[in-house]
C-alpha cells in the first residue's frame, strides 16, 4: 500500500490549503483514515480522522473548527481542508489509518508564515 500525501506549501497566516492523500494498492472500505503531523524533534501527532464507511469525523482540539477532513471513496482519497492557518500548524503532514498500520509515505510540508 502506498499513501501519497500532497497539497502542502508555503502560505501566510490566515490562508487555506487542501491536502490530499491518495491510497494505492488497497481500497479502504472500512475503518478510519487519519491525518497526522510532525515537526522536528517532536512525535508525529494526530490531527484528524474520518470513518471511511459512514463519514464520522474527529479532530484534535488544536484544529477543531478550522480543519475539515473528508473522503472520496471512489477515488480512494482522503482530504484535509485547512482554513485559518496559523504558524503553529507548520509541520510535515502525513496520512495513514488511524491505527498507523500502513507504511508511512513521505508526507507533505506545510509552512505557515506569520
Write a brief caption for the model.
The protein is mainly beta and 114 residues long.
Please, could you describe this protein's structure?
The protein is 0% helix and 52% strand. The strands form 2 sheets. Strands 2-10-9-4-5-6 form a 6-stranded mixed sheet, with no helix packed on it. The protein is built from no helices and 10 strands. It has strands at 2-6, 9-12, 17-24, 32-38, 45-51, 57-59, 67-72, 77-82, 91-97, 108-113. It has 114 residues and is mainly β.
Low-confidence regions = none
Please tally the helical runs, counting DSSP H or I stretches of 4 or more residues: 0
Shape: globular
Q: Please count the beta strands (DSSP E, at least 2 residues each).
A: 10
How far apart are the termini?
37 Å
The order of strands across the largest sheet is 2-10-9-4-5-6
Describe the largest sheet: 6 strands, mixed
| Percent helix range | under 10%
How do the strands and helices of this protein lay out in sequence?
Blueprint: E1 2-6, E2 9-12, E3 17-24, E4 32-38, E5 45-51, E6 57-59, E7 67-72, E8 77-82, E9 91-97, E10 108-113
Parallel strand pairs: 2-10
Antiparallel strand pairs: 1-3, 3-8, 4-5, 4-9, 5-6, 7-8, 9-10
